[in-house]
Amino acid sequence: MATSPLVLGPMVRYVDESSASVWVETRSAARVSIRAGARDWAARTFAVHGHHYALVELDGLEAGTVTPYAVDIDGSQVWPDPSSGFPPSMIATLATGKPLRMAYGSCRTSVPHDASGNRTHGVDSLRAYALRMAAGGDVRWPDLVAFVGDQVYADLTSEQMQEFIRARRDIEEPPGEELKDYEEYAQLYYLAWSDPANRWLLSTLPSAMIFDDHDIRDDWNTSLSWKKKMEATTWWHERIVAGLASYWVYQHLGNLSPRERAEDAVWQRIVRHEGGDEIDVGTELDSFAERADQDPKSYRWSYCRDFGDTRLIVVDSRAARDLAPERRALVDADEMAWLDGQMRGGFRHLLVATSLPFLLPMGLHYVESWDEAVSEGAWGKRAARAGEKLRQMLDLEHWGAFQASFREMAAMASEVADGKRGPAPETITFLSGDVHYSYVAEVERATGSRIVQAVCSPVRNPLPRFMRSFAAIMSYGLAAPVGALVARSAKVQDPPFHWSGVKGPWFQNNLACLEVVPDGLNLWWQTGVVNGGDHLHPRLELVASLTLAPRGTEDPSQGHRRPK
Hints:
Helices cover 30% and strands 26% of the residues. The chain has 16 helices and 23 strands. The protein has helices at 115-121, 125-135, 159-166, 182-193, 196-202, 224-231, 236-252, 258-262, 265-271, 282-294, 333-342, 362-375, 381-393, 403-417, 465-475, 479-489, and strands spanning 6-15, 20-26, 31-36, 39-44, 46-48, 51-58, 66-73, 76-79, 90-92, 101-105, 144-147, 207-209, 279-280, 303-307, 310-315, 349-354, 427-432, 438-443, 450-455, 499-506, 511-517, 520-531, 534-548. A seven-stranded mixed sheet has the order 14-15-16-17-19-18-20, covered by helices on one side. A six-stranded mixed sheet has the order 12-11-10-21-22-23. Helix 2 (125-135) crosses helix 5 and helix 7 crosses helix 10 (282-294). The longest helix has 17 residues, at 236-252. Mean pLDDT is 94; it is low at 556-564.
């Protein structure tokens, strides 16, 4: 069988009412065409370290249309594969004024979908969702799927990835089983996105992405101490450069709107290249990635999109950190100023996608705020060293561990909820992942917008059973008052508001969905379940659902939520 010139993709990325972008990786330099309806659009590939990519920009589309498409490479059709058994791939433009419907989740490992892989990592909920979509029936497709962190694991590699590493270097030498360079990142993305079911889903559903730590390394930028330790190694520089360069190619480029692409220096270098030959931007992309790591202000990974009466803000809570002790912040001053400009009313729903939960279970929030204070010297130098070790060992690095940033975000969210930044929305909902369990929490407020945290994690990488009890304890009972006492012992101020759990935690692999409906905001979580030992064809099962109704319209018999 001949090797296909298409390595990976196609992936439908940014889509609006009149334009779309389709990303591919090819085996060699080529001209890539997208045929949809009676039109076609084309682009030359660009090269990065021996790999070849194209982002084909489709314009002049009609709003609210769903059109099958095909991919040609150098004049020959390479997609769809008629023998795949999947429906045709589609480009679905947004319909003006249509209420948003989207899926989201985080933390997905790339291991085989057989009995062994499902035993160690559970059923891939994204793949189960793809199979349900492909089967047709009453499933209404989302307008968007948002991946909110840990799309790949560069530090916890699978057996397949380790085989690839062993074939090219001594795996006993640093960084060992972790990724070393761009070539290994390219293989990791291939393993993540090449399964036929997931590949078909990504060829049809527009996607938006943001990194978290494992896309680079566990605890990425958790503290200045961590950063200095990494920079002292012989391999970190190559790793961070490759990680950010490959993230730009595989994930971030497709996040950008046509206007944002027009302002992106690397992309403009590609599209302005004259002549029929392929441009190689590997060296330029490496320099860009190095600069983005050393000077976070030089590039913004966050972005914002409006879907009719719903705004989605996607926040970089990793690369944009300021780790200087006197300015320690989850997002630096420039990023916070940008975020301040996006946190506005005038929308029915305001969605804030941040890979790290803004509202942790309150007991854990207090522990993180206490540890930050101790690590920064509240109890002296010896305790600070112990606090730093605890911070890295237990991943105490969420918004609660950056109290200045937490309070700034809380103030912005409260001002939006109180109508001080334009008409108050019905809900301000933080969409997050990272913690490997899913839950819903809500700020205790009597008036204004509802402020809610909705976590979906993992898509496929369940929390070990011995750690689930700790997560459950932190979610209930005496954890919050005990945690508050601990935090006050380090002179940490109480949070500006209190919150409590609404539903969860759930520890299954999940993919969450939300939909704007007349009654409010519907949310539901789904997991994949194996039937009769058929690991390749799991069914999709509902885990939980709720509707966030506007304040004042709740069903009194259900407390502060109306059942779906």
